[in-house]
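User: Quick sanity check before I run a bigger batch. Here is a single chain. Can you write out its predicted 3D structure?
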Amino acid sequence: MMTLKQFSSGLDAVPIATSWYLADIGEAKGKQDLYKRQSPQRLKSLKEHALIESAVSSNRIEGVDVDHKRIGTIIFGKSLLHDRSEEEVRGYREALNLIHDAGPKLAITEDSCRKLHRLTRGEIWDAGQYKEKDSDIIEKRMNGTSLIRFRTVAADKTPVCMKALIDSWRDCIGEAKVPPIIAMAAFNLDFLCIHPFRDGNGRVSRLLMLLQCYQLGIEVGRFISLERLIEQNKQRYYETLNMSSEGWHEGRHNPWHYINFISFILKSAYREFEERLGSLPRPRGEKTSLIRDAIKGFAGDFSVGDIQRECPGVGIDMIRRVLKDLQGQGVVGCLGRGKNAKWNKIGN
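Assistant: Done. Predicted structure follows.
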């Protein structure tokens, strides 16, 4: 709310580091569909792996851990669960399923925020309900003492602030005065500062971020666990959150530390997506099928370079071999010589 309020009239400037992140994410997002078309059947294992990692990591960040040997049963099984921790991990999986299935159709509203919280908290008495008592962020020291790291929004003001946050998000995206990724990270920061629930706010914030990514066309979280990347950078996560929340109540905070962290996570996810997709074993004959499908999609003349752009990761020698086979079958014809020669489908 306070961050999105800062951005309500647009941005005078964007920090250079943030601009670099946005450019890298935009470039990776542009190649996203190419990779998805390249090997749709190869993405299934990535999806299943990301589902497990997300459910386990997001809970582990909050100190909720389960027996490693039972993870498969907890995530995909239907057996009875052993304890509260297992319930929360399976509940997070159910929330992920909702987001994966509903995607853009699941609007960002107070009801959807409470529903995600209810799923992740299971049968606990206040699941899906805003906090009834003030709950500040407490830091526990090694010597046993503690201090208030951040005073969250008071319980009696939480409903008003949540409504304002949802309205600000809707206005920000609708008016397009701020790059969507910046708006999403700002929403995430404001949500954590409001701290609307007694417990489970971090997990709901990460689910909302995944949902907002889908609605912005950023689908990498379906294949690479954003939660696992956050856990791997947990110290930086808390440091940037702490720095960006200082002065939040007065609107004097600097949100760019946290915005850059979220941007770093998305960039890292896309980089890993491309690396892992490129390293997975390909089913026999898949490259040939990809090339044939690409050729079928061309309306007119095409070149080897055009096929390469439609089939990232497929070598030029493979493309030429398939073209030669298709030429021998009378399916395509070559219109010239050299590497820039044009081809066409017989009958065009």
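The first helix runs from residue 2 to 6.

User: Great, the batch can go ahead then.
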